[in-house]
Amino acid sequence: MKLDLGIGKLLLVMLAFVPLAIAAEVLHWSAAAIFILSALAVIPLAGIMGRATEELAIHAGPTVGGLLNATFGNLAEFIIAFFAIRAGLFDVVKASLTGSIIGNILLVLGLAMLAGGLKHKKLDFNPQAAGMNSLMLVLAAIGLILPALVEHTVTDFVLEEISLVVAGVLILVYIAGLLFSFVTHAHLFHPEGQIDGHAHWTLRKSFGMLVGATAFVALASEFLVGSVEEAAHALGMSDLFVGVIVLAIIGNAAEHSSAVLMALKGNMDLAFGIAVNSGTQIALFAAPALVFLSLAMGSPMNLVFTQLEVLAVILSVIVVYMASLDGRCNWFEGLQLLAVYALLAVIFFFA
Are 91 and 236 in contact (CB under 8 A)? Predict the structure, then answer.
């Protein structure tokens, strides 16, 4: 409880970065200052969005609430990607998607396992649910590999068509996964006690906070994307590193705290679900949805990721799949996941 309050107070203090980011943009401060302040502003706003979604989920009930979390859990990342697409920064978008996937399943899950394992001697989770989520990640990895395999053998037009087909299949699988986990086999994924039955916010307040935080995230994201290229150059970072590591960590801040808190409470089922489901949502829903959205905006984005991005996703999925097989984890497994993430971060920094 004390840790919950501490994180809440920290996020409240960090809201001071919102007016600072607006001032930096209006007063035309340096691109690096605008980027850093906007990034710091997104973190507490994403936390508020996550909290508001959880409160709405409690009001709506377990099934509808779970669907709300599954739909809006990565809204901050989606908004950032939308503005990047509008600016034509497709490589940054793809890098941020890659970073969100590996960040959730390696960094977030690794931190949860490490923190929970240091407090509890043994942490158990449902291997059936974890295995199913991991298998969906494997499918997502396959979907990312296929367009890259044929990149040099087909025209750009055909590549766009292939990307649309792959995107459509991935979204259908994601919808089927929701049906499986929330309707036909809900008992495997959502056992009793996973959802707090007491709402701390009213329905009106929850909805208002979600709308307000979303509006400010959109504003901060526009500042962030507008300064990303110049800021990356000024800070000595590549666009690839900024997208894969920096933007992903910013957008996943809410998941970081939630998963770690659940692990500290001994609820590794929920911690595992938060991390892996968030990665699955990015891979099977957000990335394909952005392909269709970019088409509607008149600037089609394909699903061709770089070889390094594809390899990073594949390696991350393999590691997490192996970690989920026995339904048990400890702090050392969490440390190993973090080690893999650190190694990938180093490679992306120098790539």
Answer: no
Residue 187 vs residues 34, 63, 287: alpha-carbon distances, Å = 47, 11, 28
Cβ-contact 274, 258 below 8 angstroms = yes
Going from N- to C-terminal start, the domains of the chain cover 2-350
Encode pLDDT of 167-211 as tens digits: 999 999 999 988 888 778 777 666 554 555 577 888 889 889 988
Residues 144-169 have pLDDT tens digits of 888 888 887 888 778 889 999 999 99
Residue 350's Cβ-count burial label (10 Å; 0-12, 13-18, 19+) is: exposed
CA angle (148, 151, 152) in 5-degree steps: 135
Angle at 49 between CA 284 and CA 123, to 5 degrees: 65
Two structure tokens written together for 27 = 């007063």
What are 234's two structure tokens? 């000024």
CA gap 93, 301 in Å, rounded = 9
Residue in this structure with the two tokens 């590591």, named with its chain if needed = 245
Provide the 3-class DSSP secondary structure of residue 343.
Answer: helix
